[in-house]
Amino acid sequence: MEATEKIRVVIVDDIAETRENIRKLLQFEKDIEVVGAAKNGREGIEITRQTKPDVVIMDINMPDMDGITATEAIRRANPYTQIVILSVQGDPNYMRRAMLAGARDFLTKPPSVDELTAAVRRAGKMAYEEREKIPPPIHSGVGGSLTGVNIYDGKVVVVYSPKGGVGTTTVATNLAVALHSSETPVVIVDGNLQFGDVAVFLNEQGKNSVVDLAPRVDELDLEVVESVLLVHKPSGVKVLAAPLRPEYAESVTGEQFAKVLQFLRKMFAYVVVDSSAYLSDVVLSAFDVTDVILLLTTQDIPAIKNARMALEVLDALSINRKRVLFVLNRYDKRIGITPEKIAESIKQEMVATIPFDERTVIPSVNRGIPFMLEDRTRPIAKAYLGLAELVRQRITQVADLEIETKKTYSGILGRVSR
Ligand SMILES: Nc1ncnc2c1ncn2[C@@H]1O[C@H](COP(=O)(O)OP(=O)(O)OP(=O)(O)O)[C@@H](O)[C@H]1O
Ligand SMILES: [Mg+2]
């Protein structure tokens, strides 16, 4: 290492005291400079992107995104940056996973000054050597406007029913909770801009909504978006709420909404979108960017008729039927219109049924606590776990589908209204 060049270090730990202690341990080392600190994995990724340090000292257990996931993302984005993991105990399972994610070294908390400086110097040397190997970047122009973050290659899941009251919001919120984990964080977006009630279903409120993002869709960054999202604390799911008043809905165009979804998919593993039965520009643009659509129905003729028409709309939009997961909500075995008959009548495979269970669903909605946060052994919860698994599988299957040349929604609406 050149004598003049310092080893540039970023500290990522959710506890302020730990960050401060490490900074203090390093402050008298002439060849080491702390260039940034972050309190969670995501911030760590962002700071690393900005400062391009040689070494990141990374805590393993952090609330929003664990150190292993962050390590992986940092190594992908900055291949020469070396990660030194800090953990409470030397759990071999963690160590193995951290290694696989690309971590270089491990220290047990709290490290001594000698251990810490030796590890930083070793990692710094490695970073220097790896940096030397990397040819200077050829500017590709890719990743300009919307980028800044590229943490996930997130997938969009739109939950839609062409008839109101079928359970779209119930399914979207509980599916979001079922899909969410520290490794696969989820954001739920309320696509029902006039009368959206996702925030109510989750008993969260705030003054910010998608309206705050719409005017700046071309210059979004992580901080702005984070500041607008609500956090559903019991689950960790983030929420992009609908506007507080129905009249504000008009201020968000379909194009803006799609751009917001495209940005969110870089920040989250899954972007679950609740929608309205009404095919607004916003709902149609969500269809334009979605990976899969959960099309809901119930066992009654109007809902089934509307589901058939919705499939025709999706066909006209050139959305591959493999992207459509047709689901029966509020399934009651006593009703003669069976899932098989419904599937047969509208020629679309029914991939899942969710049992009718008012005793679970109604109190959950009224209390604002998704039932997927509670007893997961109930039949309805098991149905949702199965549904979440199906969504994951189908997303993998459709990832290989060629991107359809989707028709624009103005075209299709023009046709429908004729
Ligand atoms: N599996 C189920 N069993 C029994 N009731 C259910 C089930 N799923 C949803 N419900 C009930 O159906 C009603 C409508 O649910 P929800 O608000 O989720 O529907 P929606 O399609 O989002 O309605 P809207 O068109 O108003 O947005 C709620 O009262 C909810 O409790
Ligand atoms: Mg709803």
General description of the model:
There is one protein chain. The protein is α/β, with parallel strands linked by helices. It has helices at residues 16-26, 41-51, 67-77, 92-101, 113-133, 168-179, 198-201, 210-213, 222-228, 254-267, 281-289, 301-316, 339-346, 358-367, 379-399, 409-417, and strands at 7-12, 32-38, 55-59, 82-87, 105-108, 155-160, 186-190, 230-231, 238-240, 270-274, 292-297, 324-331, 350-355. The strands form two sheets. Strands 8-9-7-10-6-11-12-13 form an eight-stranded mixed beta sheet, with helices on both faces. The chain has a five-stranded parallel beta sheet with strand order 2-1-3-4-5, with helices on both faces. The protein is elongated. The structure holds adenosine-5'-triphosphate and magnesium ion.
Write the layout of secondary structure elements.
Blueprint: E1 7-12, H1 16-26, E2 32-38, H2 41-51, E3 55-59, H3 67-77, E4 82-87, H4 92-101, E5 105-108, H5 113-133, E6 155-160, H6 168-179, E7 186-190, H7 198-201, H8 210-213, H9 222-228, E8 230-231, E9 238-240, H10 254-267, E10 270-274, H11 281-289, E11 292-297, H12 301-316, E12 324-331, H13 339-346, E13 350-355, H14 358-367, H15 379-399, H16 409-417
Parallel strand pairs: 1-2, 1-3, 3-4, 4-5, 6-10, 6-11, 7-9, 7-10, 11-12, 12-13
Antiparallel strand pairs: 8-9
Helix pairs in contact: 2-3, 3-4, 6-15, 10-11
Residues 168-169, 192, 197 line the site of magnesium ion.
